[in-house]
Each structure stands twice: as C-alpha cells, then as structure tokens.
Amino acid sequence: MMRLVVPLLVLLLSTGTVRAQEWGQVAGPAPGPTQVIGFYTAGCIQGAQALPLEGPGYEAIRVSRNRYWGHPVTLAYIRTLAERVRAAGQSHLYIGDIGQPRGGPMSFGHASHQVGLDVDIWFERQPGAPRAAPDRESPRLRSLVRGDDGGIEDTVFADQHVALLRTAATMPGVDRMFVNKWIKQRICNTASGDRSWLRKLVPWYGHDEHFHVRLHCPPGNPQCTPQAAYAEDDGCGEALESWFRKAPLVPPTTPPKPYRPKLPAACQAVLTAR
Length: 274
Hints:
There is one protein chain. By secondary structure, this protein is of the alpha+beta class. Helix content is 20%, strand content 15%. It contains six helices and eleven strands. The protein has helices spanning 20-25, 72-87, 159-169, 181-190, 238-241, 266-272, and strands at 35-39, 42-46, 49-50, 54-55, 58-60, 69-70, 93-95, 118-122, 174-179, 201-203, 210-215. The strands form four sheets. A four-stranded mixed beta sheet has the order 8-11-9-10. A three-stranded mixed beta sheet has the order 4-5-7, with helices on one face. The longest helix is centred in the first third of the chain and has 16 residues, at 72-87.
C-alpha cells in the first residue's frame, strides 16, 4: 500500500535550549496531584498515571515508546470504552499513544498528545488472547482508506468500525475525534437514526488506520486550556466538503523549521521535578 511519508519533525521548545527529546527521556511522572498545564499541542502534565498495558477489552501497543501515560479521566475513558466494546461482542482494542510520563512535546509522531487528554485507538483488531509483548511493537494495522487516497478500502471497512466510532463519540467527556475525511464522508452518507454524534468526528490528515480521541479539560484543572468550540451541526456539509478541495500533502523539498511550541512556564518545573 502506497503511503505518503512526511519527514518527521525535531520538536524544540520556544527557548531553543530544551529539546523535545528531554521530555521523552524522562521515565516517570512528575510528583504531585494530577494537573493538566497548557494546551493539547503546547503543554505538560503533573502526576500522570500509567495505563495498565492490558485489561478487559484492550491491550496497549508500541509500549517501548513509553507513551501510555495520561490523566485519570483518559485512562477511565479507555477502560470504559473497552468494556463496552467487549460487552458488544467485539474483539479487544489496540490502544496507541496517550502521552509521555510528563507530557510535553514529542521528538516524533505528534504535535499534540502533550497533556494526557489525547489517545489513539486503532481500527485494527485481532480476536483471541492478547498478543505477546514483542508482537505488540509492530502489529498488523490496516488502513480503512485505499492506498491512493481515493476512497474507502471496502475490503477492510466494516460495520464494526462505525459501531466503535459511535460508541467512542457518545461517551461523556469527549471533545472531538479526528478521523480521515473519507471515513467521515462514508459515515455521513450511511448513518441513520440519531446523527448528533457525527459532529464529534472531525476530519484531519492521516487518521485512516486509527482515530484520535480528545477529551475536554477535566474539572479541577484550572491551568488546562480548552480547544475552541466547533459547529453544532453534524459536520457533513461544507466543513467536510472543503477537505476534498484541499491540495494533497507533499513532502517538503527542504528540512522544515523546528517546531517550537511555547510551553507554559510551569512546565519547566514539571520537566525537572524529582
């Protein structure tokens, strides 16, 4: 399957002196009560908790990245979703990146996932027992979109994917969920009954092999910066159609400038706390 590969960014803080790699090298969370600081793409988290690497209805994959840390509300969301999927008779979920032990920018893969309120959940599922630890590093992860980005891959896309997205989107605390434009379009064209949950599905680049759940800032986290609201309709009109008029992403011919999110000042203390 052909895939568009965009060179990975080396993420730097706005000071230019603390590199994103430093956030990824910290093995454990910052001490203290759990607090989200900043925005999803420019922030950190104190007192993050680790998702158990497997549980009823789910297993974490690519665990060597050490990105299975998040806010307790995120971990509770994952466990509840997994239980609901299991109760519906579906195979267990693959849980991907949540965040680093102290959040912050990552050296590859994401601009977001910095405050423990984002989680990637893969569309691929395998029946049977959880995979052995080594096999979790590179499981089969099929796309729901054709390799030429020309539409849905109908040999992979199934009703269970729609059911999963519906269940995930209708759970409490969900701000929005990022999916590929083709997935959003297919569901817009086929969903029946209550369509209010479709507004939670927001088109974004990629997100053809997994969907990205973003939760609201939880109560009691005054330093968490919420994302702007979006339209109250189902998002199946102009907001979606505009994505099909966008020029396709192409790899840059020169190295991109380093990404320098300006983190809240409090994140320096989170990074260095012992």
